[in-house]
Amino acid sequence: MARIIGSVSPFNETEDTWQAYAERLEHFSLANEIDSEAKKRAVLLSFMSVKPYKLLSNLVAPRKAGECSYTEIVDVLKNHHNPRPSTIVQRFKFNTRVHGASESIRTFVAELKRLSEFCEYNDSLEEMLRDRLVCGINNRRIQQRLLSERSLTFAKALHIAQAMEAAAEGIEDLSGHITDKVCAMKHHRTTAAKPRSTTSDRVCYRCGWPHADSRCRFKDSKCYKRQKIEHIAKVCGSTHTAKVQPKNKHKTHVLDENNVTVQSYMLYSMYSTSAPLCRNLLINSTAVKFQIDTGASLCYDQEDICRESQYSFKAFI
Q: What is the superkingdom listed in this entry's lineage (predicted)?
């Protein structure tokens, strides 16, 4: 028994056209050396499912399907499933087909060839495909390049159009990759050193420093002057309406490698009007006045500094 080469599935009109199916049957017959019309007819009828066979029987009635030749069966089913369209209508569809916005040139040309099947252009088909490609493409750069060619054939026009399309896609990939990196660097510069903003320039009534009263570390401290809770002796009896006094104010700009400003900051420097923190210590039964060295230009109340901070003393001689 001879080995069968290949296979053909039953015809499905929702997934395939009858013309394409008939062509596959011809290839199957050629591969298996089926030459006679009777054998071809037997193969075709045996591959048919129930629905196509019933349709064929209705189309050739009152004769039976087995009484028709292979060529007759193919033609009958072709005229039923794929009736020949009007040449005028097909030419209209061909000449009005334009390149879609998101459609590749390869897909556009494939659709033009499909529409030209029943246009009957015959020997002028290559010229018609060239003209439709040049006139229907929606890329002005490619269209201008094609129109600048003196002797332009369809094959040459297709080659140029596909090459320029591929080059444009490559440039977009490269530029998009670089732009992503630049945007990431700019985003890092502008957000990494974002200055902290304050909601008020009033000082805390508990300690005299510029921050919210509810976040003050001395809210549970005891004043050593009046023995009251919630503030320290430094601000005891004050009106609590003092404001931070900036000594100097200037704007600083952050520049990139091209000396372009990417961020601006307002810088302040403050000064204190309070007297130095001092203490009298007994040395050999003699009172000596010492200044507390806290290492900062602004300090807390003297009593709190002595109680909570690490410090050194400088004697006034």
A: Eukaryota
- Do residue 263 and residue 295 come from a single domain? no
DSSP calls for 53-83: HHHHHHHHTTS-GGGS-HHHHHHHHHHHHSP
What Rg, from alpha-carbon coordinates, does the chain have? 46
CA distance 138 to 145: 13
| Residue 278 φ/ψ, nearest 5 degrees | -130, 160
The pLDDT, as a whole number, for residue 269 is 56
Of 268, 200, 269, nearest to 240 by C-alpha is 200
Range of the domain at 100: 87-165
Find which of 110-114, 168-172, 305-309 is predicted with most confidence, using mean pLDDT. Answer: 110-114
Rounded distance between C-alpha atoms, residue 310 and residue 257, angstroms: 44
Name, in order, each residue with C-beta under 8 angstroms of 309's C-beta and a sequence gap of 6 or more: 294, 300
pLDDT tens digits along 155-193: 999 999 999 999 988 887 777 655 555 455 444 444 444
The reply to whether 255 falls in a domain is yes
Q: Is residue 32 part of a domain?
A: yes
Per-residue pLDDT tens digits for 23-49: 888 888 888 888 888 888 888 888 888
Q: Please confirm whether the linkage preceding 62 is cis (ω < 30° from 0).
A: yes
Q: Quick one: tokens of 76?
A: 């009958």
Query: Which 8-state DSSP code applies to residue 148?
Result: T
* Number of domains composing the chain: 4
Q: Which helix (H) or strand (E) holds 185?
A: helix 154-192
| Distance, CA of 159 to CA of 142 (rounded, Å) | 11
Distance from C-alpha of 13 to C-alpha of 265, rounded to nearest angstrom: 72
108, 136, 165: which is the final residue of a domain? 165
